[in-house]
Amino acid sequence: MPIKGKSFQSLRLRTGPSRLRVSCAAKPETVNKVCDIVRKQLALPADSEVTGESKFATLGADSLDTVEIVMGLEEEFGISVEEESAQGIATVQDAADLIEQLIEKK
């Protein structure tokens, strides 16, 4: 990408698939625990499909349910979730990733 006649290789726009992908996905055990807590908090049947990609809203959670889910996660994992962080949680995977980040900081 030229700027004032100079070309900067690091700023070159690339098209096509990216070769480097950073992922900080939580461990499967953490995701499974979060799924169980979500099922319990939302009173879902044990055989209902809840996965990392499940959105709380799609599962029927309103804002109060989401607060209760976060409280259940705090109790289960012995963590404290800041309000700003809690507002960014939309899926089971989001919750599991945040939990592992908070546990690492302990």
TrEMBL record:
One of its GO terms (cellular component) is chloroplast. Belongs to the acyl carrier protein (ACP) family. Pfam families: PP-binding. SUPFAM superfamilies: ACP-like. It is found in: Plastid, Chloroplast. The keyword Oxidoreductase does not apply. The keyword Electron transport does not apply. One of its GO terms (molecular function) is acyl carrier activity. Carrier of the growing fatty acid chain in fatty acid biosynthesis. Keywords: Chloroplast, Fatty acid biosynthesis, Fatty acid metabolism, Lipid biosynthesis, Lipid metabolism, Phosphopantetheine, Phosphoprotein, Plastid, Transit peptide. This is Acyl carrier protein. Residues 28-103 form the Carrier domain. SMART domains: PKS_PP. HAMAP family: Acyl_carrier.
